[in-house]
């Protein structure tokens, strides 16, 4: 009986220690996602998945709404600042912010090109632009997204 109590007490202590050690990591990850920009980017990711699926299947009726939603979200994101700015030297922040906004502008340009491909019913061109959008997203996240796992 005493041995069972000792084991339970040990497990309880281990659980408390684990929670104490992982709480800051969980909190940082939540703070990273729980920003206006993080929420906008999550919505954009969902819309991009819809766009990519529509492009793959050639579903022209679904392409325009997904593209329009991404464009709307990109305009919202342009007014935000990436959390990664907090991690760099203050003297480097203006350049990073300028680069971030240039990336958002490039995203809008690709979306405009996609709209033109839609109008022309150019399926191959549209699929190529969707691939470019995906690559642009990966490159931009690598450059501007804060790593919340640190």
TrEMBL record:
Highest taxon above the source species: Bacteria
Signal peptide (UniProt feature, chain positions): 1-28
Keyword presence, Amino-acid biosynthesis: no
A GO term for molecular function: iron ion binding
Cross-referenced SUPFAM superfamilies: Cytochromes
Entry keyword annotation includes Signal: yes
Pfam families associated with the record: Cytochrom_B562 (PF07361)
GO biological process, one term: electron transport chain
GO cellular component, one term: periplasmic space
Gene3D superfamilies: Cytochrome c/b562
Record key words, sorted: Signal
Family recorded in the similarity comment: Belongs to the cytochrome b562 family.
Protein name listed in UniProt: Cytochrome b562
Species of provenance: Marinobacterium nitratireducens
